[in-house]
Design brief:
Elements (H helix, E strand, L loop, with lengths): L10 H21 L4 E2 L12 E7 L23 E5 L2 E4 L4 H4 L5 E7 L6 H10 L14 H9 L12 E4 L21 E3 L15 H14 L1 H4 L7 H18 L3 H4 L4 H6 L4 H15 L5 E6 L11 H24 L8 H4 E7 L2 E2 L13 E2 L3 E6 L7 E3 L1 E2 L6 E3 L10 H11 L7 E2 L8 E2 L22
Parallel strand pairs: 2-8, 2-9, 5-13, 6-7, 6-8
Antiparallel strand pairs: 1-16, 3-4, 5-12, 9-12, 10-11, 14-15, 16-17
Helix pairs in contact: 10-11
Length: 461
């Protein structure tokens, strides 16, 4: 009987084979179908179709704006007025938002888990504490929304499900889709660089289509390679395909056009430009469901009251956010619902800032996690109300204001987003590269176990 020929491997072949085997074992969970498990199920509200999260990067001072606390340090030209019982308002900084108070709610019973920028910003984007071992695996809240709403996409939808604007200075960076496929990652738009890249000029179309056809022929084999080693290419290809559909669609040019008159009404700033584009994408209803708009520069350790710091940023935010809320409230769908009815708008930073007198010498305010304020509107939110309250100095939450004996945290904000969008926020996914179950919202928060829930008083009463 003829014996089989023995197989000899070189050292290089052995390491190559072993490396492929190890990669395959590690990637196997990621290649499996994604199944989200309910874990008992949450009662969801389903009052909104879109979410716009306005991130005040750096941590805006709560005691100088929407939870105003007067002191000898307060500039006289803030023009502080009591616009309604218990609500003092710096009219010189936020005159536009003062006119929108009947449409917005102020959430003052809030705290953050951390006072370090990178970790706190990561928490805002993911609703999870930063774990270095899982940092690249955890997806952003916007990516989870994209995953959950993907099945609702129509053939005519040409916009990415998750769009981010101006996330250029965050210490946490712009969180991606983690272990989820790249089609759920954020599509980033930097309004400081111009909008010409997002739509084709008529004279450019023929040349572009020729190059695109050549690319499809060139990498056809890689596009159809199901192996784990080709995942990076498939992810890039997902981005390319989505970008191709968007820039070749005749609707895109109008969506990314900035009218001079509108730019002026929104403040003629990159934040205002982003707000216009966010409004356009919501009105188009062409696939985008979660939008993350960042305004940079709120980290005022020094000279907080200089004209280029708190004043300028406040004026920029006021013009952009007030015009956006006004437009969303005045534009209607054929069925009669306004865009604001369909859109949950949340505006907040990663934490507050130290209350009381300014820091000696530097004349600023430092990071502060024990009190902060969010502005919320639309998507079923009842405006004209304040939820929770702090002490006379703005140093401590003394009234959480939502029927729970603790402050509101980012987990609760995320639960509110998911609930408003009709997403069961108690779900989890077990097929992850690390093997660790991913919960949309972790049962264990950064420092303790909390019973996460939506901020119900925003919608009720």
């Amino acid at each position: 009987m003829k014996l089989p020929r023995p197989l000899f491997l070189t050292r290089r072949q052995m390491f190559r084979l072993g490396g492929v085997s190890m990669t395959g074992c590690w990637m196997a969970p990621a290649m499996a179908p994604l199944n989200a498990y309910s874990n008992g199920g949450a009662r969801v509200r389903g009052s909104a179709r879109f979410c716009l999260f306005v991130m005040l990067d750096g941590g805006q001072s709560h005691v100088d704006r929407w939870d105003l606390k007067e002191g000898k340090w307060t500039p006289e030209d803030f023009d502080i007025r009591e616009v309604r019982p218990g609500v003092k308002w710096p009219m010189a900084l936020y005159p536009g938002l003062a006119r929108q108070l009947d449409r917005v709610a102020l959430v003052r019973g809030m705290e953050a888990w951390d006072s370090v920028h990178g970790r706190a910003q990561y928490y805002v984007q993911s609703a999870h504490s930063l774990n270095p071992a899982l940092q690249k695996e955890v997806p952003a809240v916007g990516s989870v929304v994209a995953l959950e709403t993907w099945a609702q996409r129509r053939p005519s939808d040409i916009l990415p499900p998750y769009v981010a604007f101006n996330v250029t200075q965050s210490q946490a960076g712009l969180l991606k889709s983690g272990f989820l496929p790249a089609r759920y990652a954020p599509f980033h738009v930097d309004t400081a660089t111009g909008m010409s890249a997002y739509a084709l000029a008529p004279e450019e179309r023929a040349g572009y289509e020729r190059r695109w056809a050549m690319l499809q022929d060139f990498d056809a084999r890689l596009r159809h390679d199901p192996s784990p080693e080709a995942k990076a290419f498939r992810d890039y290809n997902d981005h390319y395909q989505a970008a191709h559909r968007m820039i070749t669609d005749p609707r895109t040019e109008k969506l990314f056009r900035l009218d001079p008159g509108e730019r002026k009404r929104y403040g003629s700033t990159i934040t205002g430009d982003a707000a216009i584009l966010a409004r356009n994408l919501i009105e188009a209803d062409a696939g985008t469901r979660f939008l993350f708009l960042q305004q940079n520069g709120w980290d005022h350790h020094k000279d907080i009251y200089s004209r280029e710091n708190f004043y300028r940023l406040s004026h920029d935010l006021d013009a952009a956010l007030a015009a956006l809320i006004e437009d969303l409230a005045s534009r209607k769908r054929p069925g009669g619902r306004t865009l604001l009815d369909e859109t949950l708008v949340i505006c907040m930073g990663e934490f507050g800032r130290t209350p009381g007198a300014l820091t000696e010498g530097l004349k600023g305010r430092d990071h502060y996690q024990y009190a902060m304020t969010a502005l919320v509107a639309g998507g079923g939110v009842r405006g004209g109300r304040v939820i929770g309250g702090t002490d006379a100095a703005g140093a401590k939450v003394v009234n959480p204001g939502w029927g729970v004996k603790r402050s509101i945290y980012m987990e609760d904000v995320a639960a509110t987003i998911y609930s408003a969008l009709g997403i069961d926020w108690k779900k989890s996914i077990r097929e992850t590269p690390s093997g660790r179950e991913f919960y949309y919202i972790e049962p264990f928060a950064a420092k303790e176990m909390i019973a996460t829930r939506e901020i119900a008083p925003l919608f009720e009463g």
